C-alpha cells in the first residue's frame, strides 16, 4: 500500500477505474479506497486531509449494460462525493464520472470513438481546472 500512497502523494490527478459489479466497484479497488482514510485527520466540526495540495479525482466505470438501460450512475454518486471530499476537500460536487456501457470485449472501449472522446474531454477538464 505504501507504493500506492507514494503515487497518490506525487499525483495532481487520480483516476480510479473499475468494472461495474452490481452497482459497485471491484473489491480490490474498494480495499484501496478504504485505505484512503489514512489521509484523513479528524477535527472538531469535521476533518481535513494530509495532502500538501488539493488534487483532482475522477472515476471510470465500465459495464456490459448499455448506459441508457442502466440506473447505476446514481449508485456511484456517494463514492464520487467521498472522492471529491478526500482529494479536493469539498462535498460541494461529486468527482467526474465516465461510464462506458456495452463493453463486451477487451478492445470495445478503445474502438468506441464517442467514449474515447468523452474520456479525452474529461482529461482536458481535469487538467484545465488546475
TrEMBL record:
Domain of life: Bacteria
Alphabetical UniProt keywords: Flavoprotein, FMN
GO molecular function: oxidoreductase activity
Domain NADPH-dependent FMN reductase-like positions: 3-42
InterPro entries found in the cross-reference section: Flavoprotein-like_sf, FMN_Rdtase-like_dom, ISF_SsuE-like
The name this protein goes by in its record: NADPH-dependent FMN reductase
Organism the protein comes from: Clostridium pasteurianum DSM 525 = ATCC 6013
Amino acid at each position: 500500500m505504501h507504493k500506492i500512497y507514494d503515487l497518490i502523494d506525487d499525483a495532481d490527478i487520480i483516476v480510479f477505474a473499475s468494472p461495474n459489479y452490481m452497482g459497485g466497484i471491484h473489491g480490490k479497488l474498494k480495499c484501496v479506497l478504504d485505505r484512503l482514510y489514512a489521509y484523513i485527520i479528524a477535527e472538531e466540526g469535521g476533518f481535513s486531509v494530509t495532502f500538501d495540495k488539493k488534487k483532482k479525482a475522477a472515476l471510470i466505470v465500465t459495464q456490459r449494460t448499455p448506459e441508457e438501460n442502466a440506473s447505476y450512475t446514481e449508485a456511484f454518486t456517494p463514492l464520487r462525493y467521498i472522492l471529491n471530499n478526500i482529494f479536493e476537500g469539498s462535498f460541494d460536487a461529486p468527482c467526474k464520472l465516465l461510464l462506458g456501457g456495452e463493453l463486451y470485449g477487451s478492445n470495445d472501449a478503445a474502438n468506441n470513438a464517442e467514449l474515447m472522446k468523452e474520456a479525452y474531454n474529461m482529461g482536458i477538464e481535469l487538467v484545465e481546472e488546475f
